[in-house]
Amino acid sequence: MKTSLKTLKKHLPYIQNSFGYPYNNGRIEGMNNKIKVLNRMAYGYRNFDHYKKRILLHFKLKPFETDFKKTEQKSHAPKQRKAA
Q1: Euclidean distance between CA atoms 9 and 18, whole angstroms
Q2: Who is most buried in 9, 22, 31, 43, counting CB within 10 A?
């Protein structure tokens, strides 16, 4: 019992903040849990893109496309020199 009280006293300001502010991480924790369940059901995907698309489909999210591939292609393209 003493250990429990000691722990509560130690965390009292944080506990009070949880009542004073409307913010929490419940939604994110729920999403993490669903992703872990999906991972257990799938036993892993061979292709990471398929796994990512399955998660986006499950949460009805739009895919987030980065310009990484476009910039990668531009940086590897040979530079053309001007004719003198």
Answers
A1: 15
A2: 31
Kindly report whether the global pTM for this prediction surpasses the value 0.70.
no
Q: What is the 3-state secondary structure (H, E, C) of the chain?
A: CHHHHHHHHHHHHHHHHHHHCCCCCHHHHHHHHHHHHHHHHHCCCCCHHHHHHHHHHHCCCCCCCCCHHHHHHHHHCCCCCCCC
As a dihedral over the C-alpha atoms of residue 18, residue 19, residue 23, residue 25, rounded to 10 degrees, the angle is: 50
Per-residue pLDDT tens digits for 28-53:
999 899 888 888 877 767 788 888 88
Task: Compute the distance between CA of residue 52 and CA of residue 61 in angstroms, rounded to an integer.
Answer: 11
